[in-house]
């Protein structure tokens, strides 16, 4: 298949720049994966479309406030460092700007000097290895000084960092939020649990590769990025129990989907596992575990729109997206949701 097969026209004004005041007030487009039939609802109505005995699988990864704005020493020129991977011993692989000024040996200061850094090496692809110096606990310093690494299509400044975190996030490590989960409130999750729907958690730390465009003409030629993910024993047990009892396994977000599909056995059973995954799901893929998916609206020609097309069919997805555009749904990270069932 061609990458261009997954193009759709999206007016820029439909790209949500800020989150809604109330998380569960976002709209919810229901899509029948077999027929392509659609219905329009709001996210707080989700419990109506779940059944006792189903289970929801959510990604509990938490976004690192990994974008650091500082100045070079000496001289004071502005610079930006984005943390990518913890290499140990206070060294991180990072993206840096301006690259020409941040060569090995360069010194940087953030805030009032509570955090300083030295560029120690340049690695393949132009990224830098950066050693940080600070007092106390690094993640606490980061919480105080760092900003959320919002996707490139969001131009507005985020007023509250917690709005780019799910209410159930706990495992720090993502460079971007698992955004399908942003619609849930604690009250809505409790309502769902009270009706007999199982709730399980996996962890997949979202990498910046999730925003990398597909540049190859043929989708099969795209090289998928790797991300670290974990399925705990209790979640594996919940999935197995749900399947045995005839319930549906519904993943919240493409990250949860990729996690369970990465570690599922060929017969659809699950075991506790963790490791790196570069699973690439596009039309023709046969799902081993997942029955339904709650997800946001994705970028044209992205690996994510290919994934949802594998579940519901390219024609159904593109027709639903065209309908969402006509109905002025909000798109991408802070946008509205779709439930493919």
How would you characterize this protein structure?
By secondary structure, this protein is α/β, with parallel strands linked by helices. The chain folds into 2 domains: 3-63 and 160-340, QueA-like, CATH 3.40.1780.10; 67-145, Beta Barrel (Thrombin, subunit H), CATH 2.40.10.240. 18% of the residues lie in helices and 28% in strands. It contains 6 helices and 17 strands. The strands form 3 sheets. A 9-stranded mixed β-sheet has the order 2-1-17-16-14-3-12-13-15. Strands 5-6-7-10-9-8 form a 6-stranded antiparallel β-barrel. It has a two-stranded parallel sheet with strand order 4-11. Strand 9 (115-122) and strand 10 form a beta hairpin. Helix 5 packs across helix 6 (314-326). It is globular.
Task: Give a short synopsis of this structure.
By secondary structure, the protein is of the alpha/beta class. The chain contains 6 helices and 17 strands. The protein has a 9-stranded mixed β-sheet with strand order 2-1-17-16-14-3-12-13-15. A 6-stranded antiparallel β-barrel has the order 5-6-7-10-9-8.
Itemize the secondary structure elements and their pairings.
Elements: E1 27-31, E2 38-42, E3 55-59, E4 61-63, E5 67-73, E6 78-88, E7 91-97, E8 107-110, E9 115-122, E10 128-134, H1 138-145, E11 171-174, H2 186-194, E12 198-204, E13 227-231, H3 233-244, E14 249-252, H4 254-263, E15 273-277, E16 292-296, H5 303-312, H6 314-326, E17 337-340
Parallel strand pairs: 1-17, 3-12, 3-14, 4-11, 14-16
Antiparallel strand pairs: 1-2, 5-6, 5-8, 6-7, 7-10, 8-9, 9-10, 12-13, 13-15, 16-17
Helix pairs in contact: 5-6
């Amino acid at each position: 298949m061609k990458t261009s097969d997954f193009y759709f026209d999206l007016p820029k004004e439909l790209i949500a720049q800020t989150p809604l005041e109330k998380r569960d007030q976002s709209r919810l487009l229901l899509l029948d994966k077999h027929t392509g039939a659609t219905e329009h609802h709001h996210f707080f109505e989700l419990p109506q479309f779940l059944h006792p005995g189903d289970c929801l699988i959510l990604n509990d990864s938490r976004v690192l406030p990994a974008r650091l704005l500082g100045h070079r020493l000496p001289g004071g020129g502005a610079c930006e460092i984005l943390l990518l991977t913890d290499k140990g011993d206070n060294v991180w692989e990072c993206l840096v700007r301006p690259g020409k000024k941040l060569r090995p040996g360069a010194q940087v200061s953030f805030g009032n000097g509570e955090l300083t850094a030295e560029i120690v090496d340049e690695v393949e692809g132009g990224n830098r290895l950066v050693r940080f110096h600070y007092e106390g606990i690094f993640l606490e310093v980061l919480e105080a000084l760092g900003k959320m690494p919002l996707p490139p299509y969001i131009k507005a400044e985020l007023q509250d960092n917690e709005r780019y975190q799910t209410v159930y996030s706990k495992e720090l490590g993502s460079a971007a939020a698992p955004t399908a989960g942003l619609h849930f409130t604690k009250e809505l999750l409790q309502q769902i649990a009270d009706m007999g729907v199982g709730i399980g958690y996996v962890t997949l730390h979202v990498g910046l590769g999730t925003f990398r465009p597909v540049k190859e003409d043929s989708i099969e030629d795209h090289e998928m990025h790797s991300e670290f993910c974990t399925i705990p024993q209790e979640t594996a047990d919940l999935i197995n129990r749900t399947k045995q009892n005839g319930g549906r396994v519904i993943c919240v977000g493409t990250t949860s989907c990729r996690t369970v599909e990465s570690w599922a056995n060929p017969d659809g059973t699950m075991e506790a596992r963790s490791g790196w995954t570069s699973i690439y799901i596009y039309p023709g893929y046969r799902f081993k575990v997942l029955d339904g998916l709650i997800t946001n609206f994705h970028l044209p020609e992205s690996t994510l729109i290919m994934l949802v097309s594998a579940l519901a069919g390219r024609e159904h997805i593109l027709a639903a997206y065209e309908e969402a555009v006509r109905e002025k749904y909000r798109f991408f990270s802070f946008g509205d949701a779709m439930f493919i069932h």
